[in-house]
Each structure stands twice: as C-alpha cells, then as structure tokens.
Amino acid sequence: MSSASVTLRGTVSPLEGGPCRVALLDDKEQEWPIFPRGAGADLAEMVGSPVELLCNVMEEGHNQIYVRSYKFLDEDDNDSWL
Known about the structure:
By secondary structure, this protein is mainly β. It is built from 1 helix and 5 strands, in the order E-E-E-E-E-H. The chain has a 5-stranded antiparallel β-sheet with strand order 3-2-1-4-5, with no helix packed on it. A hairpin with a 7-residue loop joins strand 1 and strand 2.
C-alpha cells in the first residue's frame, strides 16, 4: 500500500465480484475499487452519493483504495469538479 494519502472525488458506484462491493467513479470515468475496511465499509450503503475521499492506493495496477476518511459533497461542491 502506498504510504502517501491522496484525495479523490467522484460518485460511489456498485461493483460486481471480488472483495470490493463499491468503487469510486471519478470525473474521468475511472473506477477505484474501495477496500471494505476502515471508512470504506460505510460507503457500501451510499451508492450514488458524490463524495471526497482521503485514501491510500493499495494496488497500483488495480487502483484499489483504502479509505481513511470521507465527506459527502453537496451541489455547490460538485460544480467545481464536474
């Protein structure tokens, strides 16, 4: 796992198969599977929500992320990144 934290914005989307049930879909349509531990476990119930995540990349080739913290974005926040 990468030791440096990164901030990602996008929408929580469902993910089929594997240990990850949801992913972050960013503005470039790239999927970031969310590891179901830590704060990421909460996001399984938040499909469709726009969020900002503070996370670590676990597997560079697969973009799987471990979420350290998150916040929901309101409509005003979304205008700056869509």
